[in-house]
């Protein structure tokens, strides 16, 4: 089993070396003439205005939150699906209850407009 | 035919014998793995270059243009010219940027896209590694791509870049759920997460057993790789160019590289999980695999050429209020049918009929809900528009 | 031999990430180091022959929890300027505490005589996990869904603007 | 099995102690939460390592690790929601400023 993962390790090292190698070659080839205006933050040619860390709305967090909860649900779903043929009807009922409870959460978010992008 | 089918396995055997002459066993293993990994990486880069050309040709034809046709025959050398340009462009690092995070961003973005190729079966026994957690590995690797986007957005110290990164993350995260849920039906029938096992289980292509899941998977995947019509985070008309606003030269090219490799990877995954992967009559497996993959790539390009970009609130609503409930319903239907007819033991024809009936019922239910809710939806839409108009009037 | 080298490499990566989490001035950079540490832990799971957990570690921690943390960092502006210390005044005391705990844990780990078994783990871990979740651990499994529901609703209520 | 169990225990102990240090000393509330996440990861390493070395034929260690991951994610979700809520009220998440149990 570890043999397969050794391949993944080597593969990730080589995959990581692609951008590093490419960027190093580009670093050697490209011209370097920085300038005051050139290195300014790009905002359609205007001077930068106000703080960079603008205040984001909480909606982003709510989406991430619901995502985390459902991501964990899939963690339970995969072993269930793999073992399903050995388990039979009882497993289906258990999973049905599991999903139903979480769907209540989704419905709650839906009804309270937490899913609404405003 | 037999020879062509085993072409790559034979080549690998030749290399193994060649190296085996003067290296110990573990050395041979390491050399073989490195060679395989290097080949996969080369495939990734060449695919990216081919896809940029293909995209411009296909979209050009859709828009009644010729596309690139100056450099080389049919403009085939265009990607090379583009690459040379990328390499010799001046690189601009904004003064305000956090140098470490800014420069690491493009480096972190690329590996997740390439790593997906490790478990994709290009033919019988022809995959980098046949992991037992196959699909879970793909989902896990794909989910790490958000990190590079965050690094690019935060490191640039540009509010549009940061906003683009936030939007991209929210979108990727939202569409990941329907994507991972839609595949559960396939895993349930195949009884394994391993990609090779999933291909071997497809006596009937899973697209016929799980058509609804296939459509959900396709839509969610196109959204995951931020391609049109879901390309809001990097749409010029929305927020300059999103998280890669500040990047130039090859650093910008790296984001492109990642995007095109992901397009290929997602199509390959779709072909493997739903279209039978390398299985097919007469021709060698890897030709079947490439044909199916490029069919899906073409569909993705076609979507870009045809559909207008959707609005950001529609984007999020579609993920959470349409795709997620549909994926959950599909999962329960699949579970129910698999409980009635055990797909591992029933002959293919009856499995096919059973799942087809289930999916038809599901689609009928969806249409019913749509018809019933249509007036209500229109009313709520009108209310929202009215409220926005009132706000604008103030 | 090779696995031992791999273990040392991955363990050093994990610990370096963890130290980065604690000592980075900016919270965002802290979060990036946290991700590094999570990736290292997933490598450890692979060495422990728990590939499913390694995948889950990447999917849930790197792909979900880290994103959640970064969103929270973006929503709460980092008020710390360059001058204000990012650790509180008890950092010396806290360091001693952590060091003492580390030594104690090491003592327990090395002195105790663990009854190590040489049996083989099941061939198909994922299937075995599924059967365990649906059989022996079915109650915790259902409780987990209620728990997730409570967390979801609670967090939405707390986070939303009124 | 050529890695002794004590190596894993050492790694987990180190990770746990670093997490504890971060938890005790970071001023930023999100920093404290990250310390807690590190500690939970250390616990998970221990659970899986003990499961692998002492009862390899059962998957109890992994099942528990899955439940701990569930718990950690839910904890992060609610904890960060609280932090965002605190930020909205106090306009700061510096734990030195937030020292009142009740206002």
List the helices and strands and how they pair.
The complex is a heterotetramer of chains A (118), B (394), C (162) and D (103).
Chain B: H1 2-5, H2 7-20, H3 25-62, H4 78-88, H5 99-115, H6 134-143, H7 145-156, H8 159-190, H9 195-200, H10 206-209, H11 211-224, H12 236-239, H13 249-274, H14 285-306, H15 312-340, H16 348-393
Chain C: H1 2-23, H2 27-47, H3 51-75, H4 91-111, H5 125-134, H6 138-159
Helix pairs in contact in C: 1-2, 2-3
Chain D: H1 5-25, H2 29-54, H3 60-90
Describe this protein's structure.
The complex is a heterotetramer of chains A (118), B (394), C (162) and D (103). Chain A is mainly α and 118 residues long. Chain A is 68% helix and 0% strand. Chain A has a single domain (2-111), classed as NADH:ubiquinone/plastoquinone oxidoreductase, chain 3 (Methane Monooxygenase Hydroxylase, Chain G, domain 1). The two termini of chain A are 49 Å apart. Chain C has 162 residues and is mostly helical. Chain C folds into 2 domains: 1-80, Up-down Bundle (Four Helix Bundle (Hemerythrin (Met), subunit A)); 123-162. Chain C is built from 6 helices and no strands. Chain C has helices at residues 2-23, 27-47, 51-75, 91-111, 125-134, 138-159. In chain C, helix 1 (2-23) runs antiparallel to helix 2 and helix 2 runs antiparallel to helix 3. The longest helix of chain C is centred in the middle third of the chain and has 25 residues, at 51-75. The model of chain C has no long low-confidence stretch (mean pLDDT 88). Chain D is an all-alpha fold. Chain D has a single domain (5-90), classed as Orthogonal Bundle (Helix Hairpins), CATH 1.10.287. Chain D is built from 3 helices and no strands. Chain D has helices spanning 5-25, 29-54, 60-90. In chain D, helix 1 packs antiparallel against helix 2. Chains C and D meet through helix 1, helix 2, helix 3, helix 4 and helix 5 of C and helix 1, helix 2 and helix 3 of D.
Descriptive tags:
heterotetramer; A: 118 residues; Methane Monooxygenase Hydroxylase, Chain G, domain 1; flat; C: mainly alpha; Four Helix Bundle (Hemerythrin (Met), subunit A); 2 domains; 75% helix; globular
